[in-house]
Amino acid sequence: MNEQRFILDNIMSLKRHLLKRFDVYQITADRQGEKSWQVSEADEVLPLFGPKNLPLVSLKRFFFAENEAIYSFNGNTFSPIKPKIEPRAIFGVQACDLTAISYQDTFFKDDPYYQARRQQTLLVGIDCNSPCEKGFCHEMNAGPHVDSAHADLILSQFSDLQNTAVSSTETAKGAWLLIAATEKGRDSLQGLVLQNAPENWPELRQQLKQQVVAKFADFSYIKSSTEIINKGQVPAKLWEELSVRCLACSGCTNLCPTCSCYSSYEQYDSESNQTTTRRIWDSCQFEGFQREASNHNPSQLAAQRTERFWFHKFSNAYLPEFGRYGCVGCGRCEQTCAGSIGVHSVMKRINQVCCN
Amino acid sequence: MLQLTPRSIRIVDSYEDGQNAKHVTFEPIDFIHEQPVRIGQFFMLSVPGAGLAPFTYTSLPDSKGRFVALIRKVGKLTKAIYALKQGAVLGYNGPYGQGWPIEMLANKEVLIVAGGCGIAPLAATIDHLIEIGRAGNTTLIYGAKDRPSQVLSRERRNWQNKILVHDTFMQTNDADKSGTPTQHIENVLAESDRHPQIVLTCGPEAMMRSVAITCHRLLISSDKIWLSLEKRMRCGIGLCGHCYLANELVCKQGPTYRYDKLLELENKTTVFHKHTGLYQYC
């Protein structure tokens, strides 16, 4: 579909409109200032957005549930348990997380549980107008601006259209470019009176993006370490050195918006005499992840498991299937890793050891 | 869309087959196998109360849809199956994975090397080779710990006078049969004047690797050597991630692998397990 572009003077008018048809989720800060995705209970609460408000926990669980019932057994028959999801709009998603959702859309394209949630969801992306603290989305081709293929609606904020200065206040008001990137996005706007955006606005948005990109720090070590990984030049000894710092806490895999491993377990209810099988997020960083009943474990060494995670994020071997790397540059692994072996630490160390 | 919910099957027959192993026949309840099962594929068996795990078809579904699996008591799940009686209802998903390269076997001299329960995924292949009139060109070297632990006794009895079978045992006084199956490959081939053009192997991973290395040394090119890998699996459909091997998932792209392709995959990462004998410290 061709993009449709409109002017919006206040994103709250869009939010109010969407609330008529959707449960609207937005980034909300708790009393400690921690950001998370929550359903908007009060109509007038301004959604948080932008680089300073990237929640530590991504949107992954909205589609690939952290723990869900998948089928039940009554002693004779197995019956699927389908998720019941009301139409929902997720308002203000950053480009990196949208890229990750697109990656997961490919991985889970035939998963009925993922798709049931995904199809009920309208994604409203907002361009980031500055780099965030740990992020390197631009280096990973995942931001800072939203890719039209990754969201239904896209918002881009211009504070001053004459010189396209970037807004630093992140307020709702001002001049917004609203793009309907999909059919679903266009349908969601029905009933909202909108004025078409001037023809030069996409160009202004592009200029804005260049200004933001120029503000990113130098992440060239990410690119060079990716090359080293793909040439198989990271010595086993270095993976071992890095793996010593892994506490197998699964923080990286839980927070990584493109990690998708799971396990399953059963719950028996004596009253109904039913067994319910549930799936739950799992982690390749756990020692027993691949261990077989015979105790043979193909990834027994911590070094193998550490290498596994980075291979999954940066190997060219995944490009034919996904068209991109598994890392979207959100920096959450760096933020959470207690052993300081998140993406920046690991890629810097690889660069340091292998390039000197 | 993928089907995660199993379909019901019931145990219609079972008998002890070797030590701590059972030969179990399953029957579909209210479904037919829409997809034909290929030799070497596997299915996921859900055992209510114990979880799910992959098993191979020792024999493919017959006209009534009945199929057979060999179940050896190893962990929690197989212990639970072992305790089940005739008529017990279980869950079934499949067929999954890529089977053996059956089309390639038609006009070839075939060597099959199996270890322990690793003979189970090869049984239907041997039956097929006999059926298509290739018994005289099929050699089986079957290794087991000792004679009582050999499995598929009825099937092997049926093969005995049709294909060339050489048994090996880790524990035996018979020098002709003592050792691992790999140690016997060269002698068996020399004595029978057989020159295999394709090799299929299944058993403990270390055994399969040594079989592949030995056969390669005997000038069988690595693209003619096939292995069937065993991995922990939680779904069988390429989602749960447990059976990863570099960028592939053994449940989807495997479990059968051509040796050269397997090495290619393994060379994508740098840390190897010590037990494989390929551990390399740079």
Automatic annotation (TrEMBL), chain A:
UniProt entry tagged with the keyword Calcium: no
InterPro entries: 4Fe4S_Fe-S-bd (IPR017896), 4Fe4S_Fe_S_CS (IPR017900), Znf_C2H2_type (IPR013087)
Domain annotation 4Fe-4S ferredoxin-type: ranges: 235-267, 318-346
Keyword tags: Iron, Iron-sulfur, Metal-binding
Keyword Signal: no
Taxonomic superkingdom: Bacteria
Protein name: 4Fe-4S ferredoxin-type domain-containing protein
Automatic annotation (TrEMBL), chain B:
Pfam (any one): NAD_binding_1
InterPro entries, sorted: Cyt_c3_hydrogenase_gsu, Dihydroorotate_DH_Fe-S-bd, FAD-bd_FR_type, FNR_nucleotide-bd, OxRdtase_FAD/NAD-bd, PyrK_electron_transfer, Riboflavin_synthase-like_b-brl
Ranges for domain FAD-binding FR-type: 4-102
Protein name in the entry: Anaerobic sulfite reductase subunit AsrB
